[in-house]
What we know:
The chain has helices at residues 7-21, 25-34, 41-48, 56-72, 81-84, 111-115. By secondary structure, it is mostly helical. Helix 1 runs parallel beside helix 4 (56-72) and helix 2 crosses helix 4. The longest helix has 17 residues, at 56-72. The termini are far apart.
Amino acid sequence: MGFDPNEPEQRRRLRAAMKSADISISALWLKYFSLSGDAGEYEVEAYLQGLLSLPAIQRDLLALAANELIDDLPRPHAPYSDDLTGQSQDGSNTSQPDTGQPDDEDGRPCPEAERDGEGGGEQGTMTSGP
């Protein structure tokens, strides 16, 4: 069939990566095509089954497409202690975003701060007094 000596191993690893990441041939082909791949979807499927040989540049584009699809998948991660700050025991986030304005005892921005000019203007600007 005139395969490059590395082609069968590259194909095998691509198929293994697709299987472990649950990437369909259609999804792979669409990403590959968006990266300027030349082969059609049926040709990609034939390549993955070992029925068709592709030039190295097209195989590399398929690998790039698969790797980009894999990188886009959400992955679980172990949280750092800072990630858990402000979470209640049920896991919901109880921390409030920092608005840079003074808060009252309930955690709401103080309306007095906006009226007095403490929280509403741009930082570094000076206002003239009466």
